[in-house]
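Record passed on here:
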Amino acid sequence: MTRLKKWSKELIVLAIILFVVFTVMDLWRKPQSLAPALLESQTLASGETVSLAELSKEKPILVYFWATWCGICKITSPTVSDLAKSGVPVISVAIRSGETSRLLAGMEKKDLVFPVINDINGQLANIVGVSATPTFMIIDNGELVSFTSGWTSSLGLRARMWIASF
C-alpha cells in the first residue's frame, strides 16, 4: 500500500508539472492579438468563400491549424471531425500539406469531415502567428477568446467551446 501511495503522489506531482508547463507554453505561443488576415474572406479547398468574422458573429467558431505531416494531428483531426459532425462550427487550416486535390483525397480517405483552408506555403499560419501544430483557436465576434496548442481532448475542446458561448 505504501508503494501505491508513493506512485500516486508522484503521478499527481507530474500532472501538476505538466499542467503548468503546457499552460506556460500556451501563454508564450499565444498571439498578442488576432491577426486581421484571419478574419478576412478565405477560400476553402472546396472553392467556397467564408468569413470567420461573419461566422463568429453567430456563435463561437473553432479554428483548427493542422498539417498532414503532423504526428499529433493524426490523433486530434478525428476528434475535430467528430466535433464538426456533431454541429460544432469548425474551420480548419491545413499548413504546408500539399496540393488541394491531394489534401482533400487524404481527408476523405481518413473520413475527416470539416471545412479546410489549404495554406500551401504556410503564409496564413505565419501571419496569424501559429508556431506549432496542432493549434486551436476559438473566435467569438471576431475576437480570440481561447487558444491552445498541442494535443487536447474532445472534452477539453467541448469545454472551451461551451465557455466561449457565454
